[in-house]
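From the shared-data thread, chain only:
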Amino acid sequence: MFIRTDRLFLRPAWIEDAPELARAIGDKMVVRNLARVRWPYTEDHAREWIARGKDPFLPTLLVTLPEAGGRIVGASGLHEDGDDLAFGYWIARGFHGRGYATEAGRAMLQIARVLGHTRVRADHFADNPASGRVLRKLGFAPTGQNLARQSLGRGGASVPAVGYEVDLTEAGDGQDASMPKAA
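Structure, as tokens:
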């Protein structure tokens, strides 16, 4: 699955991406905000992640910049979290503040719609309010649940998190009519 937005190209990861992926995510300040990524993150971790089994209804795609030769700047994806469908993303620190997380997130939610998903959950660590702003821009609403989430990037510590969800069948959920359809 591939999707092109105004500035980004979201695509699957290939084994050849492992060195660049490890460099892109290899920042402790990025990894500490992720629940399912270990620190330090190595090329071996990248190869393991790329080689894992993939469910076509739960895509995770690299976020790349076509005008920069396809440089990897992050990832965005869907995954199971218990009985819920969850959304997650990361953007390399050198690319924060440019709207890439929101643009990639909109594309991923469009993919979720095309795949027939109707409700998506997300959360962010309470000490990372910027992620909450991205989720709200995407149409996620706080659930009122304060959670304790394990963070592999923080050595497996239990960290306070804030829960969100979005109903993909409702209007006003961050869907942009100009967004392309998933390919």
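The first helix runs from residue 18 to 25.
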